[in-house]
Amino acid sequence: MKILFLGDVMGRAGRAAVAAGLPRLRAAWALDFIVVNAENATGGMGLSPDHAKALLDAGADCLTLGDHAFDQRPMTEFIEREPRILRPLNYAKSGAPGRGHAVFDAPGGRRVLVAQVLGQVFMKRAFDDPFSALEPVLRAHPPGGMVQAAIIDIHCEATSEKSALGYWCDGRASLAVGTHTHVPTADARLLPRGTAYLSDAGMCGDYESIIGMDRAEPMRRFITGMGKGRFEPATGPVTLCGVYTETDDRTGLARRVVPVRIGGGLPAEGPAPFDLDAPVAR
Predict the structure, then answer these.
(1) Which one from 68, 155, 180, 182 is the annotated catalytic residue?
(2) What residue ranges in the chain does DSSP mark as E strands?
(3) Which pLDDT score, from 0 to 100, does residue 277 have?
(4) Do residues 118 and 66 make contact, with C-beta atoms less than 8 angstroms apart?
């Protein structure tokens, strides 16, 4: 199976670029399944129902959220009606709206598990233990058995925690990929037992920014220690960042993993050349 995972969509510019690019990427790379982390797609803080619909209509098979899952209040109700949106498994000790994992249909009668967990290290609030939250989900959905692929979104601040969760998932998932920091890492690889891993997928946003925000206000706060206005998402040229994985349907494990960086200002990477502004050759 050919799987594309895109990192945190940042604001209007990121949202527009992803919506425009997904149909063409699916055709160009013959993608079977697409997951998009969309927790910053609405003004950099959360995801609104309308923006969720736009990304799903563009071709995302599943949207994941994160620690900003319910910053947009309508999402608390919308997520109950839209099974293609997932919040973290361990978001709240007493439960939260929606679901933290789901199994989706893919072409050829195949099935794909997607799950998300939140880290605990350096996060602003304490969440339940991600390891124990994920354990029963992985046990019930072994790749190559109940599902042909399993994708785990590890939404953490600390790369050490992401690495620990990645190795803990090794051999039990097709892809374990980090999100949240908005900075793509250079450690895409196959782990010893066959799980594709990347510490952070990066963001789909303007990299001439401070992690997706217009530079002026963050710079002012760093330099003076005082704020003057709101953080606003940057609106310059967008780089789509994520990871591409090819899996073996029989085992559910990964055979290939490639970082994805398209457009904007970062060096291009991907399983095949792709120009975000050019039409797909037919």
Answers:
(1) 68
(2) 2-6, 8-9, 33-37, 62-64, 85-86, 101-106, 110-118, 149-155, 175-179, 189-190, 196-198, 203-206, 238-247, 254-262
(3) 77
(4) yes
CA distance 10 to 8: 6
Active site residue 182: no
Residues 243, 196 contacting (CB under 8 angstroms): yes
Residue type, 73: R
pLDDT of residue 282: 44
CA angle 47, 53, 55 (to 5 degrees): 80
Query: Hey, where are the domains in the chain?
Result: 2-262
Nearest by Cα to 61 from 86, 39, 24, 89: 86
Query: CATH number of the domain at 2-262, please?
Result: 3.60.21.10
Record the tokens describing residue 116, joined without a space.
């998300």
62-64/189-190 β-pairing: unpaired
* Burial status of residue 268 (CB atoms within 10 A of its CB: 0-12, 13-18, 19 or more): middle
Section 171-194 average pLDDT: 98
pTM for this structure?
0.95
Query: Model confidence over 37-94: pLDDT tens digits?
Result: 999 999 999 999 999 999 999 999 999 999 999 999 999 999 999 999 999 999 876 6
Cα distance between residue 146 and residue 154, in whole Å: 22
pLDDT band with cut points at 50, 70 and 90 for residue 189: very high
